[in-house]
Amino acid sequence: MKLSSLVFGTLFGITVVLANSQYSQNEEDCSEEAKTCQEGWLAFNRPQGTWCVKVFPNVSNIWGAEEVCKAEGATLTGVQSTEERIMIADAGRELNLKLGNVTLEGSRLSVWLGARRRAECPNKGDCSALTQFLWTDKHTNGTEGFVWSETNPSGPASQKCAQLLIAMDQKRLARDWCRKILCPHGSLDDTYCENKQMVACGKEAI
């Protein structure tokens, strides 16, 4: 609120009026309150804002996975950093341990991410490993999260979706077929969208 007062005085015999203005600031803190994630969601502090992620045990193809996320007011999440990638994979591992799934195979040993193959990159070699896929959640950016298992993304063009691999044997092998190639815990693999995996959803903090 603006407060004004008039000050009268005499200068060299001439009466002058000075406007004395000052502003009073509401003592209430008007700064924006920090946004937070719901209980049970991982909170990642990105430059573009806090991003919340949760892994769900629902096993579904990519389209069903999106429906799972929509029911949570979220979407399939991208991965912006190495920290996010490993923490999401760890969350998947912990969820499997809770469910009693400790085998080397099974649909719960990978998690759907919000990433799709670019139309202009239908085959391996058409684009680099960092540019073959793009994030779909409209929040994730950059390519740091695209850490693929060895030889991946391998194609073919019909492998349009991306999964995050989970190692349950405490070794750096996420799947049985990885024994011939290197598939670290938390690495990515391109795969068919019809396959069934667990779901990693993401949304902005509120």
Automatic annotation (TrEMBL):
Keywords annotated in UniProt: Signal
Signal peptide residues on this chain, from the entry's feature table: 1-19
Domain C-type lectin positions: 48-202
Record flagged with keyword Manganese: no
Top-level division of the source organism's lineage: Eukaryota
Name this protein carries in UniProt: C-type lectin domain-containing protein
